[in-house]
Amino acid sequence: MKALIVYSSQSGNTRKLAEAIHHQLSCEKRILPVAEAPAPAPGETVFLGFWLRGGKPDPHASEYLAKIGKTRVFLFATHGAASKFGARPKRPFLCKNTCPDC
Ligand SMILES: Cc1cc2nc3c(=O)[nH]c(=O)nc-3n(C[C@H](O)[C@H](O)[C@H](O)COP(=O)(O)O)c2cc1C
User: Fold this and answer.
1) Closest protein CA for atom 2 of ligand 1
2) What's the pLDDT tens digit per position in 85-97?
3) Cβ-Cβ contacts under 8 Å for 74 (sequence gap 6 or more)
4) Which of 55, 49, 43, 67 is nearest to 13 (CA)?
5) Is 86 in contact with 58 (CB distance < 8 Å)?
């Protein structure tokens, strides 16, 4: 697999998640903010990260998603809803204590 990780992030949460995914993937990969992201190359899987704005994916990520056509896409997101359990995860779920932020 080849991975193109694209993220839209205003305050950095989604960027951190994108970086954790980038760190964990062992395939050929590249990571870019959505403003600099090219169209995916043939055979590339897009990992697209967005943040929730007004109950919807943010407009930059939505615009990119609409442009890329038929491509295999893995979506991930961050949002600001309160946790039912009163606690927030300390690190992205994919992280196994090996990424630079841990
Ligand atoms: C203008 C604005 C609107 C938002 N709307 C929502 C929302 O509708 N639902 C939600 O769960 N979080 C909402 N959030 C919280 C963001 O989705 C959350 O902080 C997210 O992690 C930000 O991602 P970023 O740090 O990558 O920019 C909103 C934040 C902002 C600034």
Assistant:
1) 53
2) 555 555 555 555 5
3) 45, 46, 47, 48
4) 49
5) no
- For the entire predicted model, the pTM comes to 0.85
CB distance 54 to ligand 1 below 6 Å: yes
Supply the Cα-derived Rg of the chain in whole angstroms.
14
Domain annotation for the chain: domains and CATH numbers: 2-78 (3.40.50.360)
CA–chain centroid gap for 61, Å, is 10
Q: Which of 54, 47, 101 is nearest to 79 (CA)?
A: 54
Amino acid letter, 17: L
CB neighbours of residue 36 within 10 Å = 7
Q: What is the pLDDT of residues 14-56, one digit of tens each?
A: 999 999 999 999 999 999 999 999 999 999 999 999 999 999 9
- Closest atom of ligand 1 to 58 CA is 17
From CA 44, how far away is CA 10, in angstroms rounded? 25
